[in-house]
Amino acid sequence: MRRIVVVGGSLAGHGAARVLRAQGYDGELVVVGGERHRPYDRYPLSKAYLTRSVDRAGLAIDDPPADVVWRLGERAVRLDLAGRQVVLDDRTRIGFDGLVVASGARPRDIDLVEGVQGAFVMRTIEDAETFRSSLESGTRRVVVVGGGLIGAEVAAHAVHQGHHTTMVDPSDLPTARAVGRPVAEHLQRLHEAAGVHLRNRTRMRTLDVRAGSVTGVVLDDGSRLPADVVMMATGTTPNVEWLRGSGLHASGGLACTPTLHARGSDRVVGAGDVVRVPQPLLDGEAPRVEHWASTLAHAELAAANLLAGPERARPLTALPTFGTTIHGARVRAVGFPQAADRSRVVWGSVEAGQALVALARGRQVVAVVSLAAHDHLPSLVGQLSPGTSLDDVIGTDVPLTSGQPSPKRSGPAVAGR
Q: Is 3.50.50.60 the CATH number for 109-234?
């Protein structure tokens, strides 16, 4: 291959470019990125970056790939697959022999907050910095719309900074899709104890904007929450518009094979938030995965398989993994908690703040979650395979931390999400 183009200048794109060079690719390598910054790590933006535990330099990604043509501040707007060209927003055409699609995803409500003072999404360095500044300029009434991981992290940060904080979520239990019901119930208790006002089973109808500044949030029941600051954390949309009409399958994300080749082209691979890959634990369903560790795994495998070709390509085996700390509670999950409809505590006590939980869809275990028990999580991860049921999962005999209640060796399966 004389030229490989990587569309996406964030973690996945950077990782793919680095691996291509590390594996001996010596042709021309072009990286197209919509932001003007060199690639940086977005993971801490809603965490350590908000608390100033990490500065801009700490977001920089180490080990930059050598001899790369960086096209930063430019966006791909069209893919001519037959002609093997990527068309940029300035109408420049870049030919390729191999293509890495790593164009990521954007906040679902980015257009809603554009130009509105006091309304934010969390995606870029600038997003995090302006939101942080708004919290540091005095006591504020903060409304967080969306109770997923980012929403929960932001709400926890805001309330601990002394702000009147409300979190609005359409589900009956925020973060349940991310960590399963048992741990989500624990996090809800922590939110309430910290002073976060929870408006579950509630949707936002619109922002209340006056003279260009947000003044509140109008809910679906017609009530209004006054607000000086609003964070929209309602999920993301994959950046696939530039792939439409190319012949690739890109509805809801770029559809890839288990080797991360795009369905329909051996010259195209995908990595990161933008791709959908069939998962054996989910009977071949192909969800998008938006976690830091998965992005790195995708980037490494996609780059290697692009060079190897489809005949020698290896399938993706790495399971999604993520971790977070909310109100001091350390949580780590492996697998697909969002798919679960049953759960079982296999070790410890969620109420005591230390537990291992297995999550299943029907009988198939699809995820395992640790609450302050990360050292013991690998024993459960090794049991995540097709055919493993909740009844098959074996916990650990390691006792709880001194002073904790005695272990709860197992509990009944609980229906519901």
A: yes
